[in-house]
Amino acid sequence: MKRILLLGGTGDALVIARRLGADHIYSLAGLGRTPGDLGCHVRVGGFGGVAGLKAFIEAESIGLIVDATHPYAAQMSRHASAARALQNIECWALRRAPWQPQTGDDWREAAEFPDIVHTLVPYKYPLWTLGRQPLAHLDVIPPSQHWTIRCLDPHPGTARATIIGARGPFSLDGERALFDAQQTDVLISKNSGGAATEAKLAVARERGLPVIMLQRPILPSVEREFSDTHALLNALEVWLHPHPLFDKTP
Fold first, then answer.
1. What is the mean pLDDT of the chain?
2. Does the pTM of the predicted model rise above 0.90?
């Protein structure tokens, strides 16, 4: 039986996982909620680097790695590419297209966290949508600023930071209300692509607010890249033939 190891943690990955049968494995880093209604096996936690991932692939007789991790999960993507080369199997990747600036956008690219902090100096109420990363910097918030940090899970706030645990998709009206409530004057974002979290960019555009966009990391080459789940699922059907993608056996 051909076995798939799906590296996930995104909404797109979950769409694919819901189509996998019991012979396949969905791997999560463990930072978010673990779905309990999947037909495939769910594995949570790290592998222990390239060597650990190679050993897991060998032990589980994996025939194909599907990298559907977040576009900024570069280390996992690099490990997957390296391990697949050592095991002489293929790695396919789902890589959504990045957002592109539109008329009225004021985007300012930043290569890393210190660049973002430097660019924020003139502003008072930044809205951070980078996930957990800003939580490690709560003790360096300038007295002139109050940060709003939105990440997957709630965390205690501070006198100069409001932390919101929330998961997309986010609506346009909901994002407008958030910007109003937090008096947002600058948005910090990853260029994740996709529709689930795009509304924040539309609100920033409406209000003429700057967006500090963290640059995407360079990801390793793989055997096949897909920009949408539909095309990837079709390719998986072909790869698994004559076995079905979804095992309907009770």
1. 93
2. no
